[in-house]
Amino acid sequence: MEDQFTLAETASHSVLQRTSLRPRIGLVLGSGLGGFADSLTDAARIPFAEIPAFSRSTAIGHAGQMVIGKAGAVPVAVMQGRVHLYEGYSAQQVAFPTRVFGRMGIRAVILTNAAGGINLNYQRGALVLIRDHINLQGTNPLAGANDDRFGVRFPDMTHAYSKQYRAIAREEAAKLGMTLHEGVYAALLGPSYETPAEISYLRIIGADLVGMSTAFEVIAARHMGIKVLAISCVTNMAAGILDQPLSHQEVMETGERVKTSFEALLRAVLPRMAQDNPE
Ligand code: HPA
User: Fold this and answer.
1) Which of the four, 77, 121, 206, 250, has the lowest number of CB atoms within 10 Å?
2) Cα–Cα distance for residue pair 24/101, rounded to 1 Å
3) How many other C-beta atoms can be found within 10 angstroms of the C-beta atom of residue 2?
4) What is the pTM of this model?
5) Which residues have C-beta atoms less than 6 Å from ligand 1?
6) Per-residue confidence (pLDDT) for residue 155, from 0 to 100
7) What is the domain count for the chain?
8) Residue whose CA is closest, atom 7 of ligand 1?
9) CB atoms inside a 10 Å sphere around CB 196
């Protein structure tokens, strides 16, 4: 079997062959947040199935294509949908698109997701900058032999979520008159939502948000030296907070509701990130 690096290289070439754009920023759009990709201009839309070694997304609310296009003047590569560990994919498979971004020359990513709100100051529909994460998925995309072409054996995770990008996002949110919280994201395997007891536990250990994605992408990005901005949409308050059951429908509906402000924020942040010369 070919190694991940060669596979990522092959996938990258295949994607770049379909467009003359050379994106410098990669985005991953979470559940219910995929609409941003529809607004890109000069867009090439590539179903995951047509990208070598890419896994197909099975989650509802995930379109499953990579869109290369322009957001204003900024060329971007957008994953409209992602794959998750709970779908049966390995941690490496989940992280693979991030590695393809890296091989495409992308040095900065914006990762978005739908999350349950644990912090009682949040409300359904709130947008939260991820400041840090707690990986409770029980595995890591870097487990196994290290490929030095991607990065070092033991990557630092102290500054995983760029302070500079968070400052940019806060500034742009303020200009738009939007409230942007900041918090710690706990990544769990899923696919069942958490129990109320698990949510109490997550609050005690310092989590403000809970979800089933993003952590592996961040780990793979940092391994490659790619800078990260991550934003959660609180699609529902986490289990046990409100006296009502959780549903994927609620998650999707909230995504739809925050769409306009969420997309405005992405649009405002992108040109400023594009100006940045990542270290
Ligand atoms: N828990 C886990 N993942 C989620 C949730 C949740 O409450 N909402 C959206 N994704």
Assistant:
1) 121
2) 9
3) 11
4) 0.95
5) 114-116, 193-194, 210-212, 235-236, 238, 246, 251
6) 97
7) 1
8) 116
9) 11
